[in-house]
Amino acid sequence: MSTRAVVIGAGVAGILAAAALSPAVDEVLVLDRDDLPDGPEHRKGLPQGRHAHLLMAGGLAAADALLPGLDLRRHLLAAGAREVSLGTGMVTLTSEGWFRRWRPETPRMITCSRALLDWAVRTAVLARTGNVTVRRAEALELTGTAQRVTGVRVAADAADGAEDTFPADLVVDAGGRGSRIMRWLERLGVTGVRERSVDSGLVNATRVYRVPPGAEGFPLTIVNANPFLSRPGRSGMVLPIEDDRWMVSLAGTRGGEPPADPDGFLRYALDLPHPIVGRLVSGAEPLTGVHVTRSTRNVRRHLEKAPAWPEGLVVLGDAFATYNPAYGQGMSVAALGARVLAEELRRTGPHGPGLARRVLRGAARPVEAAWTMAVSQDLWYPGVRGGRPGLTDRLATRYVRRLTRAATGSFTAASALWEVTSMQAGAERLFRPGALLSALTGPPLPPLSGPPLTAQERKILRELDRTGAEDRP
After folding, report:
1. 100 pLDDT exceeds 50?
2. At 268, phi and psi to the nearest 5?
3. How far is residue 307's CA from residue 399's CA, in Å, rounded to a whole number?
4. Cβ contacts of 455 within 8 Å, gap of 6 or more
5. Which of 127-131, 266-270, 324-328: highest mean pLDDT?
6. Under CATH, which number does the domain 4-49+113-197+296-376 receive?
7. What are phi and psi of 335, to 5 degrees?
8. Distance of CA 98 to the CA centre of its chain
9. What gap in Å lies between CA 420 and CA 21, rounded to an integer?
10. How far apart are CA 169 and CA 359, in angstroms?
């Protein structure tokens, strides 16, 4: 008897889930409410699709494991993506000062538009699996009971109101921020699932520019928000992406939101804690208008702790938890969750008792790590909704700030932070002896008074600057 899996959502989480399922079942049907483009083009079903996305080293390794015979890194780079070393390829202002650029090998991440990443991953999976099909359809509800999910009811054609039901041995909800999993669980009779939301009111504003001639190698530049000043956080990023373009993303929490008009966009960038982002883009040619998104809440669904869970239902990606996108970990968490699914399927097959529960518990580990990182920052912003820092938050924040301050002048401290943020290691990495000693003794080198640019990079910045802004600490 043939086995079928149905995946809800054809974004990165859904397509990687399909890759995990493909060796274990006869058919994988991926459902998405959008018509998927034939190339790297934006689609409306991704609320964060026009903003900056990063695929961290840990997420890339997890995705690679799902596609034997393919070097996903090379595949993405061939499609036009860029690769950035966290140690040498970034200029970063943190709440504790400027990070130095270290020459030793450090984790790398992939940068590109979300449209390119989705398209490249989807084409790679479809080319290497003979049993994965993507179909346009909107999932309406799950079929089955509180004990077992048996399929998905869909609106197959919005024009005529037709509905259909797809039976399935396994259903994966990877429907993203718009997932209706809580409502579906309630209809099945699954109760006791706790959900928490932390909302700093963050607004993203993004504009794409052509990289000016001669500036193609300029490092990824980030001015991070400082959550510890009792005022709205404001940040900016110049991200190199495919086709010699810069994706420039500004972000501000409640009370400090970036504007949507081009002149205001530039003024906001110049008024960040350091004007480098504004100075860079003041001399670059804009290719788009300013796109604004307010869909940035952190939402954690504690699905793995439900008193009872139906067989045949797995939840991955943003349907499990969403994070403030400023931290860039969502896609990597989705990839790590898909790898857990693949491992459990190899162990027991699609009908193994308790499979869905084990996948949820395994996927919850990277989910919790990303959630903790995002919320431990967002809780400090004024006007945050969903909680305030407790004693544990305050103690953890005090330690991480000491370690971050040490990292401004210590490769040992910086490498610990990079390994955790790139999802190559868990939070325990921050408490190894070298990191602990660094946090205790502080940075061995004095703080930098400005961005760590080379002489050539400073020349590029001066030539691009049309604002007359001066470097300042």
Report:
1. yes
2. -60, -45
3. 35
4. none
5. 266-270
6. 3.50.50.60
7. -65, -40
8. 23
9. 28
10. 15
Residue 133's H or E segment, with its range, is: strand 132-136
72-78's contacts with Cβ under 8 Å and 24+ in sequence apart are 72/121, 72/124, 73/110, 75/120, 75/124, 76/110, 76/112, 76/116, 76/117, 76/120, 77/110
Rounded Cα distance, 311 and 298, in Å = 27
**Domain residues of the chain, as ranges?**
4-49+113-197+296-376
Whole-structure pTM value: 0.93
Check: CB of residue 35 under 8 Å from CB of residue 60: no
Q: Are 252 and 206 in contact (CB under 8 A)?
A: no
Find, among 301, 428, 310, the residue nearest to 363 by Cα: 301
Q: How far from 140 is each of 154, 223, 316, 356, 384, CA to CA, in Å? A: 5, 42, 18, 21, 33
Q: Which residues contact 422 (CB under 8 A, 6 or more apart)?
A: 56, 57, 58, 86, 107, 109
C-alpha to C-alpha distance for 273 and 70, rounded to whole angstroms: 42
Q: For 195-250, how does the pLDDT look when each residue is reduced to its tens digit (9 = 90+)?
A: 999 999 999 999 999 999 999 999 999 999 999 999 999 999 999 999 999 999 99
* Strand partners for 6: 29, 171
Q: Strands 27-32 and 4-8, how do they pair?
A: parallel
Strand partners, 89: none
- Cα-Cα end-to-end distance for the chain: 68
